Amino acid sequence: MYPLHYLALGDSLTVGVGVPTFDQGFVEHYVCLSKQTLKKCIQYKKYARSGATTGDVLNMLNSPIVTEYVKYADVITITAGGNDLLNAAKIFMQTGNEKIISNVLEQSQNNYSSIMKRIHHMDKQKDFIIRLTNLYNPFPNIPMGEEGIKTFNSLIDNFSQYKNVKVADIYSIFKGNEKALLTRGGIHPNSRGYYQMALAFHKLGYFPLAR
Predict the structure, then answer these.
(1) Rounded to an integer, what distance in angstroms lies between the CA atom of residue 3 and that of residue 17?
(2) pLDDT at position 71, please?
(3) Three-state SS for 169?
(4) What residue ranges do the domains of the chain occupy?
(5) Is the CATH code 3.40.50.1110 the one for domain 4-202?
(6) Containing H/E element for 4?
(7) Do the beta carbons of residue 38 and residue 206 sit within 8 Å?
(8) Helix (H, G, I), strand (E, B) or coil at 182
(9) Could you tell me which residue, 60 or 125, shows the higher pLDDT?
(10) Closest CA relative to residue 38, chosen from 5, 86, 71, 72
(11) Contact 171/155 with Cβ under 8 angstroms?
(12) How, if at all, do strands 4-10 and 165-168 pair?
């Protein structure tokens, strides 16, 4: 039986920042859940960096190693966008220029669009699925942040129109549960939060890998 190949691209959420070194992040949880459903061995690879923006993830696709893995991947997950908004928020707080938020949202959408096109235009020989995630809000008490995240999430939902692409709604899972699912005083999920992320991906199903 041939193994399935899973490629996880992204930022600190894919790295698994926020949990102790040997604890599982969402990628490892997702692998376990996927094995149970698909009844196959799954080999996975992470290409991720803390602080990575949508532009950084797009640049990862310039690496020959990454593009080779994309070609053979049956499952691809992407986490990106949170750092774009965090960086924009920092500039906004310094300058008060609201245009920076709309500019970053537009650039994030363009980067995601380029990522999707690059992956779909690669010479992939088999069925594959791509799973994206929207953003949760680690600062629910800041109205400007909430507004930016809701706008980003509506933009990311549009990519579910691509073939075999689905978006996990972790915004709704974390909303009102920040204390239970995020590290204390932090912006990253804790172990429970990462499991909930993986579960959200898992519940999107695996069609056409599993019918």
Answers:
(1) 27
(2) 93
(3) coil
(4) 4-202
(5) yes
(6) strand 4-10
(7) yes
(8) strand
(9) 60
(10) 5
(11) no
(12) unpaired
Backbone φ and ψ for 73, nearest 5 degrees, come out as -75, 135
Side chain identity, residue 151: T
Rounded-to-integer distance, Cα 10 and Cα 50, Å: 8
pLDDT value at residue 98: 79
Q: How many residues does the chain have?
A: 211
Q: Which residues contact 92 (CB under 8 A, 6 or more apart)?
A: 98, 100, 101, 144
Q: What percent of the chain has pLDDT over 70?
A: 99
Residue with tokens 């894919």: 14
* Per-residue pLDDT tens over the stretch 74-131: 999 999 999 999 999 888 888 878 788 899 999 999 999 999 999 988 877 678 999 9
In a 13 Å sphere around the CA of 103, the CA atoms on its Cβ side amount to 9
Instruction: Give residue 186's pLDDT.
Output: 83
Return the residue matching tokens 């709309």.
Answer: 102
Q: SS3 of 119, please? A: helix
For residue 171, which amino acid is it? Y
Q: Tokens for 3? A: 């193994």
Q: Which two tokens stand for residue 96?
A: 């008060």
Conformational region of residue 165, where left means phi above 0, alpha means psi within -120 to 50, and beta covers everything else: beta
Name residue 75's beta-bridge partners: 6, 129
In whole angstroms, what separates CA 31 from the centre of its chain? 15
Position 23 scores a pLDDT of 86
pLDDT at position 106 is 96
